[in-house]
Each structure stands twice: as C-alpha cells, then as structure tokens.
Amino acid sequence: MMFERFAPDARTVVAHAQDHARRLGHQYIGCEHLLLALVSTDQPASAVLREHGVTSARVEEEIVRQLGLGPGSLLFGSLNRDALASIGIDLDTVRARIEESFGPEALVRAGRTVHEGGHRSRLSPWRAVPPGLTRHLRRRRPTGQKVLTGPASAAGGRYQAAGAPQGHIPFAPRAKETLADSVREAEARHDAYIGAEHLALGLITRAAGPVPSLLSALGASGPALRAAILDRYRPAG
C-alpha cells in the first residue's frame, strides 16, 4: 500500500477531480468529482461507464442538479433533492434564505466547519491517500513512470461557477475512503499498481454519498458496472 503504485492514469484522475471541483465552485473534492474526472479519460474502465450511460456531460449535469454550484454544496450533497421537493422543500430556496439571513459566505463557513472539524487538511491532489500511506510518498517512483497531467481542457465542462475557490481544496472524507478502497481493489486482484479501473471499482461500490444517487439518476447499476469493468479487464484466455 504505497502512493508510488498509483499509475499515471489514476494520478491524472485525482488531479482533474480537483480541477472539476474548483470549476464548479465547490469547497471540497468529493467522490462526485472523482467520478466526473474518471469518465472523461480514455481508459477501458471509463469506456465501460460511458457505454452504460455514465458520460461526463450527464454526470456533470446531475452533480449540478443534485448539489448545485458554488458554496454550500457539501452541506446539501447528502440530501435527496427530488424527495425533498415532493414534500414541498426546495433546496435552492433554502440556500437563498440562508445566505439572505446570514450572508453570502455563511454556507462556505458552515461547510468548511462540518467538513474539516476545525482542522485544515494537508492533502493535495498528489497526496490524496490515507494517512498510513503518506510515509511512502518520498520513496522513488518506479523507473520510467511519468505522471500524465493531460491538456488543460481535459477537466473542462459545461458549467463554470462564479468566484471559483482559490488555493488548496481539501478532499472530503468519502473521497479519501474511496482512494483507500482503490488500493484494496488492486490488492484483491494482485495488481502491482493502482489504476483507473481500481478507482472505478472503489467509486461504484460505495453505498453512501453522492455516487449511488448519481448512478441511480443515470439509470446505471453499481453491481452491473462492477461486473462489466471486471470483465473488460479479465486476462485473455
């Protein structure tokens, strides 16, 4: 379990997840941003997701619909917008009233407090791993392995929030758990690296958080996606 085992494609996904979070005006990097970055790559696991209707355009649309743009998205991310609307609760109206009463930065402050618990994360896109793995960060990377960052437009999309957050953006707890799950997925398959397929498996097997809701809204089944990804990576013969 060491960060140096993250393959270039997996590192690119993590880096682009931060870019998506910043572009959407979110104050954190969550599983939804990892999913959006993942489906935008040219890896086989990403192709499987797109074949099942989980495309970058549709994922982004659902993220904005369910979580919204800009500050406060972390506080509303675990809520079922449609279910609340069915009983007369409009999250956009709730958001507007909070900001009207407590100021435009109220949700930013509340979201940061809930997420960080009063402590600022030291994680960066290249160190988004469980604490137990960080001691391996300074070890030499495998010879010849280069980190791919992709073109600047790789993390683009339809939506652009006004006043994107500046500086460091912390990873949400579930995103860090997903990265740990990807390590376990690689170990279970006896792979000597952590690639996009392991990130995909870690994401789609989550039982809580925004990813199950996003997949459900897109008509995709986590178990079916997992089976298809495993089949795509099954050795020939």
Please, could you describe this protein's structure?
This protein is mostly helical and 237 residues long. It has 12 helices and no strands.
Give a concise summary:
This protein is mostly helical and 237 residues long.
Question: Approximately how much helix is present in the residues?
Answer: 40-55%
The radius of gyration computed from the alpha-carbon positions, rounded to a whole number of angstroms, is 18 Å
Shape: globular
Largest sheet: none
Overall pLDDT, averaged?
A: 75
Topology, pairings included?
Elements: H1 8-23, H2 31-39, H3 44-51, H4 56-67, H5 73-76, H6 81-86, H7 91-102, H8 106-116, H9 173-188, H10 196-204, H11 210-217, H12 222-232
Question: Could you list some keywords that capture this structure?
Answer:
12 helices, 237 residues, single chain
